[in-house]
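Can you give me the bound-state structure? Components:
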Amino acid sequence: MAATAFSSTKFTQPLPLNSTRSADRPLLFPAHSFKTTPSSFLGSTHKLSLSRAPISPSSSRRSAAVVAVSEVVKEKKTKSSASLSNLLITKEEGLELYEDMVLGRSFEDMCAQMYYRGKMFGFVHLYNGQEAVSTGFIKLLKQEDSVVSTYRDHVHALSKGVPARAVMSELFGKTTGCCRGQGGSMHMFSKEHNLLGGFAFIGEGIPVATGAAFTSKYRREVLKEADCDHVTLAFFGDGTCNNGQFFECLNMAALWKLPIVFVVENNLWAIGMSHLRATSDPQIWKKGPAFGMPGVHVDGMDVLKVREVAKEAIGRARRGEGPTLVECETYRFRGHSLADPDELRDPAEKAHYAARDPISALKTYMLENNLASEAELKAVDKKIDELVEDAVEFADESPLPARSQLLENVFADPRGFGIGPDGRYRCEDPKFTEGTAKV
Amino acid sequence: MLGSLRKIVSQSPRGISASGIRIIASRTYASSAGAKEMTVRDALNSALDEEMSADPSVLLMGEEVGEYQGAYKISKGLLDKYGPKRVIDTPITEAGFTGMAVGAAYHGLRPIVEFMTFNFSMQAIDHIINSAAKSNYMSGGQISVPIVFRGPNGAASGVGAQHSQCYAAWYGSCPGLKVLAPYSSEDARGLLKAAIRDPDPVVFLENELLYGESFPVSAEVLDSSFCLPIGKAKIELEGKDVTITAFSKMVGYALKAAEILAKEGISAEVINLRSIRPLDRATINASVRKTNRLVTVEEGFPQHGVGAEICASIVEESFQYLDAPVERISGADVPMPYAANLERMAVPQVEDIVRAAKRTCYRSVPVAANA
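Here's the bound-state model for the whole set.
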């Protein structure tokens, strides 16, 4: 297993099964290692020693952490300990996870190329380094389950099953895109796959996700659709956890026991604002128990650990036991967006996380446990390369949206808007160009 | 209980007066004399009741809509009838619950969000515009958002700057939103039912001071199938000398002004806009082509207002029909003052409308009359 920042103190077994917090091991980031390792959890830089003070070790902090562990997670721990000898995944599962992560990585690398070639435009936020979170969570979902994402949404869309062609085409601004070229990089939607956006503002997606979860409950309890056990995942970053909507929704989701998992992708940086410099108590997972839901911290660079936690949290939601807050400690390998010069992050910190690449880690795990051969994994790489190439070709060859598309889709029922008396779109009316829009 | 279609009949007892403030009586002009009377409050309540009864995916959420029966008692009786899963008391978290309702609408429910007043929608405007209004477009037509945002809008009385504001022009400028503003009980019932059934986000601007007003309602209006078209204005009063456009409470003022003008031999045509967006340009232009004069009335701020848009439409489409410059009556360009005398000056009054209409007909001296 790839070494983790805390492996020396935490995971002495060769196969760390328990990525969730447990009563006897409440903290994944023991204070002593924290002090001596500048780039361990919430690594950031040594310049921030002042900010670290509030999370220095104390007995009260430990007891608070114990409270955070849900009964469910504790039980699970006992159970899974019993089957310690088993591998965490089957060969098929391993290959699925590997393929999804490689797809996410290759797709984003290709996006960077295409962006620099001028094929896509605006803000493009890449997901490199965080693949274990998307794959670890979303691959456990059913088609009917929902995902609500942020502006860093391409890979969530891919994991949820939106074809790479449709996502690439959307980024190229082509009419074959998953939103006909009307959404763009930050607004991926797919009704078929229950991908509900793509939100460009911090915290904006969380209430929408809460509403999707509310719908599942409403359908089961009011509309009497007994089999509606759909779960919603809300993805967002560490920066969002200082936004009011996060707290508003933790409250409502716990209050109404909604089937939702709040997945924090804590990549330690909100553009150039270090998490430690922005947040009074940087242990985000602790906010779960404050609202009456379990809070779990997991190594977000390890897809198997993420998957274990995700199983637990999604299962809890599906059983109607309410929401869970999961903090995945991860890292983005690129700047905030392709326009970000990324000058504030310490190169040592970047190198530290680069050495913990989640894809390499899974690869090593699979090879060491004879879950796959080098050749099999190479075959996956090749398959994905071809898939991404094909997506680019498809997007490149696809037509631009027609002029008439400008005024389409503003309303489900556009009567009274944008349509002339003859039933034709007003942009086809020569007088329309009297406005400022050049069509 | 669910799905059992119920006959109408408003259940709310009469006379729960939220404010006790009476505006100018304006029943004179409503049609079907001798018909039953109904308050705007009961009209809204019965519309909610019927639509919730007809469609189990309709739900109501907001602050105090349940156990308190609504801050203005619009949701009275609904909690008892539909239970706490469909009439949902929310915490005081506008951004949170509005966004949540939008998310529910993405997924096929038909939420009605009540803002205690529309001023509080400012806390949630991101979700009204960015999450609700834009989603159908951004998703290339995949995600429609059947949701209603409703509550009292506009100037109340003595509540100061932060609680007295008209949002018609604000929301009226956003693509993806439909914006309705009822005046009478007929409007309230017909438009709210249309809004709930509509597949798109609708901003429904009520007026606190009208809730207690009674209007005659015909049997047709009381029928549970009654519904008004979105985007159609109503000619409340036919006339030939000057067109007065107004919405919400200002329709009553315009009718009162028309009454005064009639005594002086000026025949005013009063248009109740009903729909701010889409705006019924056809009806307004047809009227101005007949009267050749236009006065617009609104409570909101003057700059970039509803009146400004109507004037632009007339100048673009019916310029050659105008016999006088158009007149805009609006709220003063200031935050709402608290003092009663200042407050009165800050919103349009009947005499302002009368004066403007006379000016368009060259019946008064423009400058001196203003002083």
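A couple of observations. The longest strand of chain A covers residues 260-266. The CA atoms of residues 159 and 305 of chain A lie 17 Å apart.
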